[in-house]
Write a structure and sequence with these properties.
This protein has six helices and eleven strands. The protein is of the alpha+beta class and 277 residues long. The chain has two domains: 126 residues, N-terminal domain of MutM-like DNA repair proteins; 122 residues, Helicase, Ruva Protein, domain 3 (Orthogonal Bundle). The strands form three sheets. A five-stranded antiparallel sheet has the order 1-6-8-7-2, covered by helices on one side. It has a four-stranded antiparallel sheet with strand order 3-4-5-9, with helices on one face. The radius of gyration is 20 Å and the shape is elongated. It is an enzyme of class 4 (lyase). Pfam families: Fapy_DNA_glyco (PF01149), H2TH (PF06831). It comes from Streptomyces roseolilacinus. Its EC number is 4.2.99.18.
Length: 277
C-alpha cells in the first residue's frame, strides 16, 4: 500500500483531504498503538479504544475516540499526517519530528511537526473551534453569514479579512493571494471599497475553489490542464502574469519565504500596494 503524504502549505482543502484519509484508515477500528509525544500527553494511553471518526473544521482536525475524547491537531505551516501500512517504512521525517502515533492492526497514522496537539473531551470541542466562521467545506456552510462577516469591518484590508478564520474557515495565504487576483484588487484594499457584487462573488469563488481542490494532490486556481500553470500569482514573483504579462510582485517585509508574503499583479489588480521589495 503506498504511503499517503499530505501536501505542504496546508489550507482548508488540504485539511479536508487529510481528515478524509485519516477517517478511512482509522474510523471504526481499535487502536493497538498510541504514542503522543508531548510532555503534557506523555502518560496518555488510547490503546484499546476505537476511533469514532476524523472530522475537519476549517484548518483544524478533530479525531474523535471512543469514550468521549477528541485528539485535536492543527497543521499550520508544515505539519502533516502520514498513513502507513504495517510493513511500510516511515518516511515523513526524522523521528524527533514525530508528535503523534495512532496505530491499528493494519495501518498507522503518524503526525509530524504538529504545532498544536491537544486531548480534550468531545463535548468541549467548541473551546478550540467554536470561534471559527462558516466553514467553506463544512456541512453547515452559510453563504449569507460569510458575506456578512467579510464586510463587518469596512476599513480592514481584504487580505487580513480573508485570513481571519472568524470570517471564513479554511482560507490560508495561497487562497488569499489567488482570490485577490481573481477579484482584480490588491490584498491591501479595504473591503468597504470593493465594487458592488464583488464580496459575494469572492466568497462564492472561495468555496468553489476549495471544493474543486479538496480531492487533488496539487492545488489549482488556473482553469485548464496545463501542468505548468496551476496558480495565478502565489509563488510566482517576477514571472509574467498569465493575463497581461506584467511581472508578478511580492511583499513580505523583505523575506519572500515568510508565511504571510503577498503576491499580486500590478497590471491586473487595482488598489493600494506597498513599496517595491
Amino acid at each position: 500500500m503506498p504511503r499517503r503524504i499530505m501536501d505542504a502549505m496546508p489550507e482548508g482543502d488540504t485539511v479536508w483531504r487529510t481528515a478524509h484519509q485519516l477517517h478511512g484508515a482509522l474510523a471504526g477500528r481499535l487502536l493497538t498503538r498510541s504514542d503522543l509525544r508531548l510532555p503534557k500527553l506523555a502518560t496518555v494511553d488510547l490503546t484499546g479504544r476505537a476511533v469514532v471518526g476524523v472530522v475537519p473544521r476549517g484548518k483544524h482536525l478533530l479525531t474523535r475516540i471512543e469514550g468521549g475524547l477528541t485528539l485535536h491537531s492543527h497543521l499550520r505551516m508544515d505539519g502533516a499526517w502520514h498513513v502507513y501500512a504495517a510493513d511500510e517504512r516511515w518516511r515523513g521525517g526524522p523521528g524527533h519530528q514525530i508528535r503523534a502515533i495512532l496505530g491499528t492492526a493494519a495501518l498507522t497514522a503518524v503526525g509530524y511537526r504538529l504545532p498544536v496537539l491537544d486531548l480534550l473531551r468531545t463535548v468541549d470541542e467548541p473551546t478550540v473551534v467554536g470561534h471559527l466562521g462558516p466553514d467553506l467545506l463544512g456541512p453547515d456552510w452559510d453563504f449569507e453569514e460569510a458575506v456578512r462577516r467579510v464586510l463587518a469591518d469596512p476599513a480592514r484590508p481584504l487580505g487580513e479579512v480573508l485570513l481571519d478564520q472568524r470570517n471564513l474557515a479554511g482560507i490560508g495565504n495561497v487562497y488569499k493571494c489567488e482570490l485577490a487576483f481573481l477579484a482584480r484588487v490588491t490584498p491591501w484594499l479595504p473591503v468597504g471599497d470593493l465594487p458592488a457584487g464583488v464580496p459575494e462573488r469572492l466568497v462564492a469563488t472561495a468555496r468553489r475553489l476549495l471544493e474543486e481542490n479538496k480531492g487533488r494532490s496539487t492545488r489549482r486556481t488556473v482553469p485548464g490542464g496545463r501542468t505548468d500553470r496551476s496558480l495565478y500569482v502565489y509563488g510566482r514573483s517576477r514571472q509574467p502574469c498569465y493575463r497581461c504579462g506584467t511581472p508578478i510582485r511580492w511583499d513580505g517585509g523583505g523575506d519572500e519565504l515568510r508565511d504571510r508574503v503577498s503576491y499580486w499583479c500590478p497590471g491586473c489588480q487595482t488598489g493600494p500596494a506597498p513599496g517595491a521589495p
